[in-house]
Amino acid sequence: MAAHVPLPPGLPQLLKAGTRYFSSQQESLFSHITACRALALCLRTSYGPLGRSKLVITHLGKPLFTAHAGTILRELELENPVARMLGAASQAQEEETGDGANAVVLLAGALLDNAEKLVRAGLPVAAVRDGYEVACKEAVRLLPGLACHTLADLRDPDRVAWVLRTAVGSKLFGYQDFLAGLVARCCVAALSPEGTFEPDNVRLCQVPGGGVTDSCLLEGMVFCTEAESRAHQAHQARIAVYCCPFGLAHTETKGTVLFQGPAEMRAYSEEELLGRRVRAIAEEGAGVVVVGGRVDPLALQYADQLGLMVVRLNSRLELQCLCRAVGALPLASLVPPPPGALGHCRHVYLTEIGSTAVVVFRQDSGSCPVATVLLRGATTELLCSLEEAVTDGLNTYKALVGDRRLLPGAGAVEMALAVRLATLGTYIPSPEQYAILEFAQALKTLPVALAENAGLPVNKTMAALEALHQLGTATAGIRLGEGGAPTMDAAREGVLDSLLVKERAIRLAVHTATTLLGVSHILVAKKSGGPKVRAENPNWDLEPDALE
Ligand SMILES: Nc1ncnc2c1ncn2[C@@H]1O[C@H](COP(=O)(O)OP(=O)(O)OP(=O)(O)O)[C@@H](O)[C@H]1O
What is this structure's pTM? Predict the structure, then answer.
């Protein structure tokens, strides 16, 4: 008989058998910090315009070549709950502002790292959290005072391009002037008359081949697909959009038609019904039919007889976007379009870009709410980086629509805050002062990462940067790329970051760090058992009959 092992008194007696729990500081707090440190170290090499990319192989085996923290974290299936929390904070930043995801992870990682030092030195965790919260409030209060530029006119493409250079260049360094101009033009084109901007109204279409500078902006939409019909172009066309297949709908279950006599049987003809429907669409004035499903060969034959152009799109999102671009109403079944359901487009045509067939819906009216950026590049990796750069630019413009103030970039604002918080920390006569001083040190992690990734001498660069900030140059940042002095005036050089993005990143990083510091116990429930996993079938390639 197995000996009965009594459970230790206390919490273990209250929990279900199999539940694991960790309560000591070593097990709960320091293990958290180790997990977050590992994640921050992984993303640190991808920070800034000269950061290195990661090759991520997704769960479907697809290789992804990216330096974008949001994409890396989305594809990494983190198991550790604490690392998952930090990843979720970074994703929240990505979803809210579209930028600054890496900064959240780096800052939160540095804050936790420094908190470990303080706790090991004997400072209570509560004092560390309070100190971090005081420092965060002060940093957020100081940020507006550090703003060096305000975007006066959201519709001026030259000024917009100047402020978007940093966001665009941090993913594709070297092409920032060309790309910022392109993004600025499409942002201005997609800005609504009420002054709101929706990044979804700018579509990105990757077409392999050519060089980055062959990328261009088009008013309307471009799809990497071919026209199904013989008609390959239509001008001043009216467009009918259907989210269903182009043919008769078939029910999922089998149906039986009962005929009462030969006359009824002769009258029942699916072909005729289909012909009537396609003719009705053409009679309503449609010249182009866009469908979101399978194209029936017979329906296509009728469309060809009537000279209709038929285009099939596989994505529901693309269909919705096309409806916005041409002003059409999407229809759920193949019925004649009711009044007001037809859209209008000046030019619809099939063409080839590089060696890729594309269907273009071009408006050229100056009032189309949707714009498309045609991205050109020699390799898939380059096209992905190009897409990330343009997406960052669009998101930064969206943030600027919310708040037009800009801060000096290149590590300037982090160093300016670090210097001011260090001064504040020295004058606070309470244990929180140590946490405030460590907060100031943690902020320096971001310029240090920029300098490290650019291959600059870190100590010399940081010393030069700090000296300038101590002397009161709040806009001094790290010079990347060219030789010469290790620092520059970020405001004058046009290296600018959105205030809104920076503020949210600081708030999120501090919130995540203080939340994790507030955890005292970790309780892990026993995994629920699902059905037993079947063993591998040694005869997997044989038909069941062959085994009998
Ligand atoms: N030309 C430049 N010179 C100096 N610093 C730059 C330059 N371009 C961008 N930076 C700085 O790089 C930092 C942004 O880098 P990055 O875009 O990699 O970070 P992130 O926005 O946090 O990450 P992600 O875009 O992956 O979410 C900003 O601090 C910005 O000021």
Answer: 0.81
